[in-house]
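Thread amino acids onto this structure.
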């Protein structure tokens, strides 16, 4: 996620970086994560490393795209106003660009969390020796429906709690924004 954030800022702010990196990133994004699964299993084996790589890939793209979009969506009039007031590039970024992009960045964070839970379920059912998905897969083999339902409830609760936390964080970070005021 932090790599996606850093590259999103780089490509969003600097057109040269955008020209060099955006097309390869978009090409990699077009390959479904589950299609990459066999390659990841060959490279990293069955275990935690494969899960982390899959989750990192699913987290990267929503954060990257929403950061890029948020930075590119800043009203040019606000930037011009910052120049008129004599703000340095850093002050423009700190006071105008980043706050203006923060809503999009947080949407990317929220999307990446949802995708992370989905990929984690797949990774734990296919490429793991432990975890909730592994527990559900074993329960399926022994027709233990109660354990399967329990695993679904656990994932639903974990997903809901993580989404709730991101929404709270977003409201806190954007408390200055009229749409997020209570």
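Threaded sequence (182 positions):
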């Amino acid at each position: 996620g932090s790599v996606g954030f850093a590259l999103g800022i780089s490509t969003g702010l600097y057109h040269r970086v955008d020209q060099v990196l955006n097309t390869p990133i978009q090409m990699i994004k077009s390959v479904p994560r589950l299609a990459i699964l066999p390659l990841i299993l060959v490279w990293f084996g069955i275990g935690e490393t494969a899960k982390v790589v899959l989750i990192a890939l699913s987290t990267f793209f929503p954060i990257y795209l929403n950061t890029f979009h948020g930075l590119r969506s800043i009203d040019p009039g606000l930037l011009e106003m910052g120049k008129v007031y004599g703000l340095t590039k850093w002050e423009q970024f700190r006071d105008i660009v980043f706050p203006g992009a923060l809503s999009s960045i947080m949407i990317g964070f929220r999307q990446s969390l949802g995708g992370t839970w989905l990929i984690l379920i797949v990774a734990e059912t296919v490429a793991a020796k432990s975890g909730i998905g592994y527990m559900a897969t074993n329960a399926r083999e022994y027709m233990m429906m109660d354990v399967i339902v329990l695993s679904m409830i656990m994932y639903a609760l974990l997903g809901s709690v993580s989404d709730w936390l991101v929404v709270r964080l977003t409201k806190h970070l954007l408390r200055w924004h009229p749409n997020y005021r209570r």
